[in-house]
Specification:
Elements (H helix, E strand, L loop, with lengths): L3 H17 L5 H22 L3 H9 L8 E10 L2 E7 L5 E2 L2 E3 L6 H13 L1 E13 L12 E13 L7 E8 L13 H12 L6 E2 L1
Parallel strand pairs: 1-6, 5-8
Antiparallel strand pairs: 1-2, 1-4, 2-3, 2-7, 5-6
Helix pairs in contact: 1-2, 2-3
């Protein structure tokens, strides 16, 4: 579970963002801005970091606040799973990222695989829909849902990208160091279980 201070800060930021989205009168506008500032202060203080980037990040968010959507693809080849190495931290993850406006979740998964690994795939099953906060990831500023699709290879070849510096296939008992912000070992092991039990229903929460 994520730290309680982060839960409070995320909820305060969401209240402020949603309140500001509805063009409130000046009195309420100032109050929502004050709530947003408190959320930024909480996050900066508890994470021992500068407040300015957090303040700018929160100010850049507009409209009614909802969880962000992180889409990931599980692609199996025999008893191995496809992972990509992130340039950001040098660790490995399932291909994926934030869903873009105007595309369906499965389209986002297929696009992310192509962009990050060079492979062409098709999504065949929704394996899991998780609340990121409940699955042992390091904290991030926003609440997010994680969507895991089983995808099948249809073409392409391994290739690096501006975000990834490696593409590889890994057995369940030989996983590399994982980018825990993006995926956990428990999640990958669960996806292997789904691969062995294709009749299983979708996991959620």
């Amino acid at each position: 579970m994520q730290p309680k201070w982060l839960d409070w800060a995320q909820r305060l930021q969401a209240i402020a963002q949603s309140g500001l989205a509805y063009a409130p009168p000046q009195y309420d506008l100032e109050r929502y801005e004050a709530v947003r500032e408190i959320a930024a202060e909480m996050m900066a203080q508890s994470a021992d970091t500068e407040i300015a980037p957090i303040r700018d990040l929160f100010a850049s968010q507009a409209g009614y606040a909802t969880p962000k959507v992180d889409v990931r693809a599980a692609i199996f080849r025999g008893t191995e799973i496809l992972l990509v190495r992130e340039r950001e931290d040098g660790c490995w993850t399932l291909p994926g990222g934030w869903a873009d406006i105007g595309e369906s979740p499965s389209e986002a998964a297929v696009r992310e695989v192509r962009e990050e690994s060079g492979y062409e795939t098709r999504a065949v099953k929704l394996l899991a829909l998780y609340d990121r906060n409940r699955h042992g990831h390091p904290p991030i500023p926003f609440h997010a849902y994680k969507v895991f699709f089983r995808c099948e290879l249809v073409g392409g070849a391994p290739a690096h990208s501006s975000e990834t510096s490696g593409v590889g296939w890994f057995a369940e008992d030989r996983l590399p160091a994982l980018s825990l912000t993006r995926v956990t070992g428990a999640q990958i092991h669960r996806l292997f279980e789904h691969s062995r039990h294709p009749e299983w229903p979708t996991d959620f929460d």
